[in-house]
Design brief:
Elements lengths: L1 E2 L3 E2 L9 H8 L11 E5 L7 E6 L2 E7 L12 H11 L9 E5 L9 E5 L5 E2 L9 H20 L16 H16 L5 H11 L9 E3 L8 E3 L6 E4 L6 E3 L1 H8 L28 H12 L7 H25 L11 H18 L4
Helix pairs in contact: 3-7, 4-5, 4-8, 5-8, 5-9, 6-8, 8-9
InterPro entries: ACAD10-like, ACAD10_11_N, Aminoglycoside_PTrfase, Kinase-like_dom_sf
GO molecular function, one term: transferase activity
Pfam family, one: APH
């Protein structure tokens, strides 16, 4: 499924003082001294996101959600910083305009960026595109990911944005703790995954910018051409291991066809679909990076599934607490459990003694 993300009236629990917003932004951005129209993007389970139509053009506002938040989650300040750092690079991003950390304005911190028109494919594979376009989109996904990993992050002003050494041990520890914080029921596979990953951490590589959520659904594709015009959702970005991004991007090859946002191609005959198989995609990325094929990619795929399951479990918990960005999150229990089960299947395949 693809198209323009649906805009809906602002959800009651996410309403804010639009007049206060306009007053605050009028001295900084064109269009806010006239009436504005605010609507909310449907879907998305992290930071509530809003479309703002003004007389001078369209903007997007990202803010922290209301209510009690998990530790280190919803880091919109980091999103803003990396968008500014990547402006003018080979990585296409929206232009970040202003960060406002004064919660008195609309109740939480927020930032504003330019709206980028284009198509969004809500699944992990572009099944709604013609086969030739699918192939070109996958090629561009590899190109943009390699471009990101080639950015000189120190020269881009991202010193201190993350610790370059020991990324994977810290990530495993972080997401084990996030799972424990989100946990509302026993899930043995999640506990086993955390322990297995802690004892199977791949060696460090030269650190790069790691997006943290690089997938098709976070890319804006040109309205008529099969190329990426913007990479979105930088909330989880840091300085880290490049293969963490690659493993996460490859999750589509390990998910079965399923609901929106989870659809994959596991078990599908890809012949004639225009979708490259996993090895071809990884080979394209590796060639662009000037490196050989990664030897431990399966470990990064397992880590990515564990991390995503932890995130989805946190979303489900927020739904139970009444703080989720999308009311559909109340049904996410099965999603995180299925991810954990699939990740453990991969572990048993690569490590039968586990």
């Amino acid at each position: 499924m693809s198209g323009t993300p649906e805009l809906v009236p602002v959800l009651d629990r996410h309403r804010f003082d639009e007049a206060a917003l306009a007053r605050h932004l009028a001295p900084h951005l064109p269009g806010f001294d006239d009436p504005i129209e605010v609507r909310q993007f449907q879907g998305g389970q992290s930071n509530p996101t809003f479309h703002i139509a003004t007389s001078a053009g369209n903007y997007v506002l990202r803010k922290k959600p209301p209510g009690k938040l998990l530790p280190r989650a919803h880091a919109i300040e980091r999103e803003y910083r990396i968008l500014r750092a990547l402006e003018g690079s080979d990585v296409p991003v929206p232009r970040a305009r202003i960060l406002v950390e004064d919660e008195r304005v609309i109740g939480t911190s927020f930032f504003v960026m330019d709206h980028v028109p284009g198509r969004v494919f809500f699944d992990r594979v572009p099944l709604a595109a013609p086969p030739a376009d699918r192939a070109a989109i996958f090629e561009d996904m590899a190109r943009v990911l390699a471009a990101l990993h080639k950015v000189d992050w120190r020269a881009a002003g991202l010193e201190g944005f993350g610790r370059p050494d020991g990324y994977m041990p810290r990530q495993v520890d972080l997401w084990v703790r996030q799972w424990e914080a989100a946990k509302v029921e026993e899930m043995p596979e999640m506990d086993r995954l955390g322990a297995w990953l802690a004892s199977h951490i791949p060696p460090d590589e030269p650190a790069t910018i790691a997006h943290g959520d690089y997938r098709l659904g976070n890319l804006i594709i040109h309205p008529t051409e099969p190329r990426i015009v913007a990479v979105l959702d930088w909330e989880l970005a840091t300085i880290g291991h490049p293969l963490a991004d690659l493993g996460y991007c490859c999750l589509a090859y390990h998910f079965d066809p399923g609901p929106d946002g989870v659809t994959g191609v596991a078990g599908m005959d890809l012949g004639g679909t225009g979708i490259p198989d996993e090895r071809t995609f990884v080979t394209s990325y590796s060639a662009l990076m000037g490196r050989g094929l990664p030897q431990a990619l399966d470990v990064f795929v397992v880590f990515s599934m564990f991390r995503l399951a932890s995130i989805v479990a946190g979303v489900w918990r927020r739904a139970l607490d009444g703080n989720a960005s999308d009311p559909r999150a109340i049904g996410y229990r099965d999603r995180y459990r299925e991810m954990a089960e699939r990740a453990w299947e991969i572990v048993r395949r690569i490590d039968p003694a586990a």
